[in-house]
Amino acid sequence: MIQMELFDTKARSEKQHIVNVASVPQRSPFRYAGGKIWLIPRIRQWLLKYGGSDKELIEPFTGGGIVSLTAAFEDLVPQVIMVEKDEGVAAVWRIILEGNAKWLADSIENFNLTRENARKAIEAADQSLESLAFATIIKNRVNRGGILADGASFIKQGENGKGITSRWYPKTLQKRILAIAKMNHKINFIQGDGFEIIEQNFHRKNAIYFIDPPYIKAGRRLYRYSMVNHEALFELAGKLQGNFLMSYENTQEARDLASRYKFAMKSVSMKNTHHAQKKELLIARDLAWLSE
Ligand SMILES: C[S@@+](CC[C@H](N)C(=O)[O-])C[C@H]1O[C@@H](n2cnc3c(N)ncnc32)[C@H](O)[C@@H]1O
Hints:
It is built from ten helices and nine strands. By secondary structure, it is of the alpha/beta class.
């Protein structure tokens, strides 16, 4: 069981919510820096309020994609658009969703993970979209913290001294990849710039947006593309005809932007007995659903 605490930043009122973490399946093939699996109980609430059979979810900064996957698997919306700029991450989504999932799943199953083989797979990334997708999966499993930014280093000791194989679960990855492929009729993946896709859709009343850009400061060491014009993103969010939910690190800068654009904001934190507390600032036009 997970204990969720909500802090209303203004009133500093405190509420306690009990959320069963077992009801949040990990469906992503990635372990993603800044991944929002822990926020899924709240995102489900948002989707239950603003999703529905006539809506399309757009996720302009997809990363590990747990929000889009949850929405598609749990039928919270009939269609999702996932957008990601990182070529390696995009290659994984494209291979899974555009017909080559079985190849990726089999390659993972047949791979003998050693430091040497990992290095070779990563070096071969430029040979094809398939090899880039495979190299990205390997990097995500053998790099410390799953970090995919250039210059990230291999796990040293890892869990229980298992070193490089401590995050290598080939059967699990294979299952997740094949399950996502079965959802490909619901998921449209676009390799590109999240801003452009938001701009192309901003007039749509039936589009809703989960916006989780790289953190304003800490994003730099985590992602290849970490520089985002946050001011422009808030301005764009203000123009959206459909509903949106943004997720930010709870910094003064993010709070100032939210106030300037007259959005509601709430700091959400979650703690369980084994892991460090995670905190995030949720921003939207209306957050009344969050404390319902
Ligand atoms: C905080 S992460 C998203 C994490 C995701 N919500 C999850 O749960 O895994 C932000 C992502 O935005 C991507 N990104 C950065 N700039 C982008 C852009 N202009 N367009 C699309 N994606 C971008 C990064 O590569 C990174 O994967």
